[in-house]
C-alpha cells in the first residue's frame, strides 16, 4: 500500500537543529524552535523531516560525535521535547528521520572513557581500534591512512599507568573514535539504538558515512581503491550490518525506512547497498557532483535510473546538504561540479546566474522519479556565507586542514525568518542572543517573511513546485521517458542561460544539445534549457510552472 511505500517518492526536508530556529533565544537552534515552525514545513509541502544529530554530544563535529543516543543534547532540549516533536509532526502529516553514525562515537562516550582507563588488550579497548605504533618506541602511527578531515587517523594515548601507549583510530576528528564492528557489543548497541528511535515513532534512519564502518583487522596500508579490497572503504562485511538493520526496521512495519550516506564512485558497488534486504534508499551524490551541463546531467540521470532499476530501489535527488557549498553559490561558478561542492576560497561567483540555475535545478530534481531531499535554506536560495569571521568558525575540517579548507560553516548559518529584528527572527523572545554564526546583514531580504510576499521568490517557486508534485499523478509515479525534441527548434536569439519548466502536453522533439527534456506520466514534461540562447517551446504547450520568465513561446 502507498503508506508503506511513502519513501519511494517523498520530499524530505533536512533540518540542521543548531541553525533552524531558536526557541529559547540563546543563539543556538533547538527543538522548541523546530516545533514552532512545523506549520512552515506543512505550508512548504514536504512529506518528511530528517534531523541531523540532536543527541548528547560535545559538538566537536556538529553532533556527529555522539556521546549518548538515548538523550537529547541539553542545548537542543530534552527527550520529552523530541517525543513531542515527533508526535506533533506526525499529527501534521510529517514523517521524521533521525541520524545514526555507525562509523564512530564521541571520545566522551562512556565506552571510550572506559577504554582509556583500561589497559591495552583489555575487553574495554576491543570495542574500538587500539593498536601499537610503529617505530622502535611505537612513536609512529600504525598506518598512514588519511582522514576525510585531512591529516592522520590515529591519536596516541597514555596507558592507565601514565606511560605513552597505544594509538586509536579515527577516520574523522580525534574526538570521533571509530567503532570496531567485529565486536558483538557494537553490533547489538546500534541495533538497540535503532529500536529506541523506531519505538518513539520515527519513520526512518539516515545512516552516516555508511561505506566506512568496517575495517580490515590486519590494518594494511591503502594499496587498492577497489571496493571489497580497500582496508576501510566499501568492505563486503558492511552488507551484513545493514541486513541486520533492515530486519530491525522491518520488525516495526513496512513504513520504516533506511537511507544511507554512501559516497562511492562505482554505481554497481553503490547499488549493492540497495538490495531488497538492505537499505531502502541512499543519497545520490553523483547527480549533485556533476557540472551544470546538459550532457553530464543527462548521463547522471540515465545511470542513476539504470543502477536503481536493477535492484528495484527508487532513486534519490539531492542538490545539497550541511557538508557542501550552497547551490546558489556553486551554480554561480564557471564549473559548478563537485570540485565546487567541496569548499573553496575566493572563486569568482555570479550569484544572479547561480540563482537562475538553482531555480532550474529545483524544478529538474523535483520532476525526476524518486524521492527528493531539500536542505534547510535552499528553499530560500541562501548563498554560501564565505566571509565568516575567523573566530566564529567551528568546523573541525577548517582547523585540521591548517586553514586551507574554509570548512562547512558557510552553509550552516542560522536561517532568517523575519525581515528585521535581532537575529532576523531566528531567536524567539524579546531580546534573543546573537546566533551562534553571524547572519549576513542583507539576509532580511532573503527571509521567509520577505519571500512569502514576493511571488517571484525562491520560496514561492518551491511551494508551487511541491504542490504540483503532490497533485500531478505523472510526477508521483515512476514512469519516465526522454523526449527527443527537434534540434532545429533550438537557438533562437540571444539570452542568458538556465531555466526550466514543467509543461503540460508532452512533445516529442529535441530542442538541442543544451536542453534536457523528459516526459513523466501521460502528459507531463520537464524541459530544462542549460544553453545560452532561449529555446522555442513546442506548440500547444501549457506551462504549469517555469523557473524563469517565459516570453511568448520562448524558454529563456
Ligand atoms: O559526512 C561524511 C563525509 O564523507 C564527509 O567527510 C564529507 O566528505 C565532508 O563533509 C566533505 O564534504 C558525514 C556527515 O554528513 C558530516 O557532517 C560528518 O562530519 C561526517 O560524516 C562524520 O560523521
Automatic annotation (TrEMBL):
GO MF annotations, alphabetized: alpha-amylase activity
Coiled coil: none
Gene Ontology annotations of biological process type: oligosaccharide catabolic process
Gene source species: Stackebrandtia nassauensis (strain DSM 44728 / CIP 108903 / NRRL B-16338 / NBRC 102104 / LLR-40K-21)
Database matches in PANTHER family: ALPHA-AMYLASE FAMILY MEMBER, NEUTRAL AND BASIC AMINO ACID TRANSPORT PROTEIN RBAT
Protein's name according to its UniProt entry: Alpha amylase catalytic region
Source species, domain of life: Bacteria
Residue span, Glycosyl hydrolase family 13 catalytic domain: 14-408
Lineage: Bacteria, Bacillati, Actinomycetota, Actinomycetes, Glycomycetales
Record-linked Gene3D superfamilies: Glycosidases, Oligo-1,6-glucosidase, Domain 2
Recorded family membership: Belongs to the glycosyl hydrolase 13 family.
InterPro entries, sorted: DUF3459 (IPR022567), GH (IPR017853), GH13_cat_dom (IPR006047), O16G_dom_2 (IPR045857)
Amino acid at each position: 500500500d502507498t503508506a508503506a511505500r511513502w519513501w519511494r517518492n517523498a520530499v524530505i526536508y533536512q533540518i540542521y537543529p543548531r541553525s533552524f530556529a531558536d526557541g529559547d533565544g540563546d543563539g543556538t537552534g533547538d527543538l522548541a524552535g523546530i516545533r514552532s515552525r512545523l506549520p512552515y514545513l506543512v505550508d512548504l509541502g514536504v512529506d518528511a523531516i530528517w534531523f541531523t544529530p540532536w543527541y548528547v554530544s560535545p559538538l566537536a563535529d556538529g553532533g556527529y560525535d555522539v556521546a549518548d543516543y538515548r538523550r537529547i543534547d541539553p542545548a537542543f532540549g530534552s527527550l520529552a521535547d523530541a517525543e513531542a516533536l515527533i508526535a506533533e509532526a506526525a499529527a501534521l502529516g510529517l514523517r521524521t528521520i533521525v541520524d545514526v553514525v555507525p562509523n564512530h562515537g564521541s571520545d566522551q562516550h562512556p565506552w571510550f572513557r572506559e577504554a582509556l582507563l583500561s589497559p591495552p588488550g583489555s575487553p574495554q579497548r576491543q570495542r574500538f581500534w587500539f593498536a601499537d605504533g610503529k617505530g622502535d618506541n611505537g612513536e609512529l602511527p600504525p598506518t598512514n591512512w588519511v582522514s576525510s578531515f585531512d591529516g592522520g587517523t590515529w591519536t596516541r594515548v597514555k596507558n592507565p599507568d601514565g606511560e605513552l601507549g597505544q594509538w586509536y583510530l579515527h577516520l574523522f576528528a580525534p574526538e570521533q573514535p571509530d567503532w570496531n564492528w567485529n565486536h558483538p557489543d557494537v553490533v547489538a548497541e546500534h541495533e538497540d539504538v535503532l529500536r529506541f528511535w523506531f519505538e518513539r515513532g520515527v519513520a526512518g534512519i539516515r545512516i552516516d558515512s555508511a561505506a566506512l564502518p568496517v575495517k580490515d583487522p590486519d590494518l594494511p596500508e591503502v594499496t587498492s581503491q577497489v571496493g571489497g579490497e580497500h582496508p576501510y572503504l566499501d568492505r563486503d562485511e558492511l552488507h551484513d550490518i545493514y541486513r541486520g538493520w533492515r530486519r530491525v526496521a522491518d520488525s516495526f512495519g513496512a513504513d520504516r525506512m533506511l537511507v544511507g550516506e554512501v559516497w562511492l564512485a562505482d554505481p554497481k558497488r553503490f547499488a549493492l547497498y540497495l538490495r531488497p534486504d538492505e537499505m531502502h534508499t541512499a543519497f545520490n551524490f553523483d547527480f549533485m557532483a556533476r557540472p551544470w551541463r546538459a550532457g553530464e546531467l543527462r548521463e547522471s540521470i540515465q545511470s542513476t535510473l539504470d543502477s536503481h532499476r536493477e535492484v528495484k530501489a527508487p532513486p534519490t535527488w539531492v542538490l545539497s546538504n550541511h557538508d557542501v557549498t550552497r547551490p546558489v553559490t556553486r551554480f554561480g561558478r564557471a564549473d559548478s561540479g563537485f570540485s565546487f561542492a567541496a569548499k573553496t576560497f575566493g572563486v569568482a561567483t555570479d550569484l544572479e546566474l547561480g540563482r537562475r540555475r538553482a531555480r532550474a535545478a529545483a524544478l529538474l530534481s523535483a520532476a525526476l522519479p524518486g524521492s527528493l531531499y531539500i536542505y534547510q535554506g535552499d528553499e530560500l536560495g541562501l548563498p554560501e556565507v564565505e566571509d565568516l569571521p575567523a573566530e566564529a568558525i567551528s568546523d573541525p575540517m577548517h582547523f585540521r586542514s591548517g586553514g586551507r579548507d574554509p570548512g562547512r560553516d558557510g552553509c550552516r548559518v542560522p536561517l532568517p525568518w523575519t525581515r528585521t529584528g535581532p537575529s532576523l527572527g531566528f531567536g524567539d523572545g524579546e531580546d534573543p542572543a546573537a546566533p551562534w554564526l553571524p547572519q549576513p546583514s542583507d539576509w532580511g531580504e532573503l527571509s521567509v517573511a520577505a519571500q512569502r510576499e514576493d511571488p517571484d521568490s525562491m520560496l514561492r517557486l518551491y511551494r508551487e513546485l511541491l504542490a504540483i508534485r503532490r497533485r500531478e499523478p505523472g510526477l508521483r509515479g515512476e514512469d519516465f521517458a526522454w523526449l527527443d525534441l527537434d534540434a532545429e527548434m533550438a537557438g533562437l536569439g540571444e539570452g542568458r542561460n538556465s531555466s526550466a519548466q514543467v509543461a503540460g502536453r508532452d512533445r516529442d522533439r529535441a530542442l538541442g544539445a543544451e536542453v534536457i527534456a523528459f516526459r513523466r506520466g501521460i502528459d507531463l514534461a520537464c524541459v530544462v534549457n542549460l544553453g545560452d540562447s532561449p529555446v522555442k517551446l513546442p506548440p500547444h504547450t501549457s506551462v504549469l510552472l517555469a523557473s524563469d520568465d517565459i516570453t511568448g513561446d520562448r524558454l529563456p
